[in-house]
Amino acid sequence: MRDHVSGIGAHLAGPANVIMQLSWPGVGHGVMNSRVESGSAMKRPFKRGRTTFTYLAVALLGGDDDRTAFRKEVNRQHAQVYSRPGEKVAYKAMDPRLQTWVAACLYYGTVDMIEKMHGPLPDAEADALYAHCARFGTTLQMPADAWPADRAAFATYWEESLAEVDIDPDVAEYLMQLTTLQNFPRPFRLLAPFLVFVTTGFLPPVFREAMGLSWSKRQQRRFDRMMRAFGALERRLPAVLRVFPFNLWLADMRLRRRFRRPLV
Q1: β-bridge partners, 82
Q2: In-domain check, residue 263
Q3: pLDDT digit string, tens, across residues 178-218
Q4: How far is the C-alpha of 150 from the C-alpha of 254, rounded, in Å?
Q5: pLDDT tens-digit profile of 30-57?
Q6: 32 vs 158, 192, 245, CA distance in Å?
Q7: CA dihedral 205, 207, 209, 213 (to 10 degrees)
Q8: Within-domain flag for 91
Q9: Could you tell me the residue range of the domain that residue 166 belongs to?
């Protein structure tokens, strides 16, 4: 699995994947309106970043004990996230159906990132990666049997699920604030134009349209060249740097477990 874990790719494709996940109203409103302020991306972006990367590291590289411990902590947080009477959209973070969608977005984004940076995977390798990526969901609240049986079944699930993409203006504004780093100190926001470009490039058309983002053939050519260049750079890095910071956050999580510190 470490051959397919990309620190560079995760930072580049991550914002687009957040948009994809939150494009389902139950996920978008649940995240935007969450009462768990300690995990708020808007109020505590550095902590939220650590938690997100730790979750990905545990799901992809962690052992069973790591995933069990992390799932327990996530469950404790997610149990507090549910809609209140009068909210526009009903949601519950513990809903396995919503968690399956989140896992599906992460798997789709992982493969898309790999192919854009390094080219298509051989079938046997792609099948093994697909089976492994069920951990995106089972490290949350998704039961293992909710994961589509194979890549063909996933393709059907994905196409059917796109019908539920619906980003209302409030969620779109929230997502653009995250994408342009409005939740970070001002110097970080200098990266905003680059991030908007890369994020738009990683979004499939249905999500671009839902966000009201334009995209041209010229931008696509520029984006493709950029991804190939990042891929060439990554292939020249030693393994420990290709996987960074996932290796760092997995080690951090294990230290937190040992010294009984909060994991999320």
Answers
A1: 92
A2: no
A3: 999 999 999 999 999 999 999 999 999 999 999 999 999 99
A4: 32
A5: 999 988 887 788 889 999 999 999 999 9
A6: 24, 20, 26
A7: -100
A8: yes
A9: 2-258
Give me 39's structure tokens: 């995990």
Number of domains the chain is built from: 1
Peptide bond into 205 cis (omega under 30): no
- Tokens 């970043």 belong to 49
Domain contains 264: no
CA dist 140 and 55 (Å) reads 9
Q: Is residue 19 part of a domain?
A: yes
What's at 217, amino acid-wise?
Answer: K
Instruction: Tell me how long the chain is.
Output: 264
How far is the C-alpha of 134 from the C-alpha of 138, rounded, in Å? 6
The model carries a pTM of: 0.95
Buried b / exposed e along 26-37 (16+ C-beta atoms within 10 A) = bbbbbbbbbeee
> 119: alpha, beta or left, given left = phi > 0 and alpha = psi -120 to 50?
left
Residue with the two structure tokens 């919503």: 98
The pLDDT value recorded for residue 216 is: 97
**CB environment 80-113: b (16+ within 10 A), e (fewer):** ebbbeeeeebebebebeebbbbbbbbbbbbbbbb
Q: How far is C-alpha 262 from the geometric centre of its chain's CA atoms? A: 22
Measuring CA to CA, which residue among 69, 70, 68, 75 is closest to residue 96?
75
Place of tokens 């997610």: 78
